[in-house]
Amino acid sequence: METMLFELALTCYFAATIVCLLELFKGSKATSRIMVGLVIAGFALHTANIAARYVISGHMPTASLHEATSFFSWCIVLLFFFLEYRYRIGLLGSFIMPVVFILMLTSSILPRKIENLSPLLQSSWLFIHTAFAFIGDAAFAMAFGVGIMYLIQEHYVKSKHLGGLFKKLPSLQILDEMNYRLITIGFPFLSLAIISGSLWAESSLGTFWRWDPKEVWSLITWFIYALVLHVRLTQGWRGKRAAILSIIGFSAVLFTFFGVNLLLKGYHSFK
Amino acid sequence: MKIAVVGLNHKTADVELREKLAFNGPKLEEGLQKIREIPGIRETVIISTCNRVEIYLQVQDVEKAYADMKDFFVLFFDVRRDSLDTALYLHKDMAAVKHIFRVASSLDSMVVGEPQILGQLKDAFDFALEKKATGVLLNRLLKKSISVAKRVRTETRIAENAVSISFAAVELAKKIFTDLAGKSFMLLGAGEMAELAAKHMMNNGVQDIIVANRTYERGCELSREFNGRAIRFEDFPAELVHTDIVICSTGASTFVLHKEHMQKVMKERKQKPVFIIDISVPRNVDPGINDMDNVYLYDVDDLQGVVESNISERQKEAAKAEAIVEDEIETFRRWMMTLNSVPTVIALRERAETIRKDELERFFNRFPSLGEKERKAIEGMAGAIINKLIHAPTVALKNDAEDKDVLIALIKRLYDLNGEDHEKG
């Protein structure tokens, strides 16, 4: 049942991604309505899938890489709805839905067995810690999408060839502001995730920090985004440089998320 | 019942002639009145803009109408007849329909896709309507051409891209800053083109305008015009720190703004984006500035390039628009055919009725002894024969056949209906 929900959600996201990519070349009001409809349907199915796993396992469904990746995508879509509703940025979907789809596809090929939580992790901290981490990561994913949009649009303006997506993409100012705002959302959540994680470690393991690879890489990610904000406020590194930094930052997020789990070992690793 | 258009436009007549033939002010009403008095002309609409003077007509004899209109132009505007020879064109029937559809859709305009013509056409139609100079045919034609123009505008992107340098600059500014309201704007030097661009910027919400001109007095004059403030030319570098958009046309022979200086400015304004438009020839702004982050420098050639690619974009869209026009001509043609068949159907029926009445009368005169019952029966039978005979041609006329105009002509000839013209004027 919950597997079926996942497959259907994946299918909806896939269809939405196709429509989004079509929108790059030939967009109309109709296609963006179809896209939003598909994302809503996918999100509803996805939510049902996550809820079902929660009911079956009795804990926050972030206990396997499959679950975590799926929850990560879920957070991105949630944030996407918010931005789409609030700001209506042209083509945002075309740059973020592929990310969602790739994450979901990755999630779908990972083992889907519902794991029993190791006694070490059985705590309400699990919910707090992972929720903070994924909301922060979702904001960074979004900043990554917006950063790419900025670089494309900037390229059009600088090269003085105003064809292609120039018309459809929003203005440089909007994209830059959005990139900044998303990082200012993501950064405190990442900080909270690290703080809640160390508090949890203290309560269950007795130490705040154990230099687990995930911890190290989270810290690296944290420093990258701290740098992004710092140079923006002090040196005026906005626009292109901020966009590039947000792309680098997101690669650190992805490495922290996948790389650490797949390549390095530690108590953050899934079975 | 034929449609014709007689007129001239920017392609056939130079501005001098167009000026002479313009229906300005009271001339429009007077002209409309005079044309309506010409025998054979039943409906009239005059469209007079700076690029075209056209008279749409509903007439019986197109060639005669053309000659009449030529006479009218010569007399009314006091121009030489030979000056009209090459300028004046005549389109009739479907060619006239196509012409007005293209005019309304701005496909026949000097700048393809410009939006004013539709408003001018609406005004012309309203005026003719008010003066009761139009009838069934031109009303339908003008309404249809307005709806065709709207369809072209929604289904193609013919009017979307800026095709003048100053509009292109505004369009770009919007893609850099989103909203121009609240942005500060500097006019560096005061050329005519810079002024035009400044006006467009103001229409799009720019409020804070600073003018730096070599002659301070001229700068003051300009700044009053734009409700801005003037500064001395030497002071402009300092002011750049607070300026988001700069239009430069000083007429200086060297650069007035160098990269080293701009780097300082950018540092001071914490890299807030700047859009510089250098419309001076030779250039007044160091082109190296465009390599800096968050500074966007466009010179005249760059903007010209944007405009040219926009124009070619419009031409591509124009091809789509032409297809829409062809499509709509077809629907209009069908409507006109149904319009034309109605009088023929009526004429046919009347002809049949007359024959029936005449023959019955003659028959009853020959056999006066017939009783009421027999008479009724014979009348009924005659009616049935007539009805059955004209049923097939009537159906054929009402059907929307490809060769309907041929059919109408044929039936008129076969039943000798030409004497009876039921067309409504």
Short description:
The complex is a heterodimer of chains A (271) and B (425). Chain A has 271 residues and is mostly helical. Chain A has helices at 2-25, 29-57, 65-87, 92-109, 125-159, 172-205, 213-235, 239-263.
Summarize the structure in words.
The complex is a heterodimer of chains A (271) and B (425). Chain A has eight helices and no strands. By secondary structure, chain A is mostly helical. Chain A has two domains: 117 residues; 153 residues, no CATH class. The longest helix of chain A has 35 residues. Chain B has three domains: 159 residues, Glutamyl-tRNA reductase, N-terminal domain (Beta Polymerase, domain 2, 2-Layer Sandwich), CATH 3.30.460; 142 residues, Rossmann fold (3-Layer(aba) Sandwich); 81 residues, no CATH class. Chain B is built from 15 helices and ten strands. In chain B, helix 5 runs antiparallel to helix 13, helix 6 runs antiparallel to helix 7 and helix 7 packs antiparallel against helix 13. The longest helix of chain B is centred in the last third of the chain and has 67 residues.
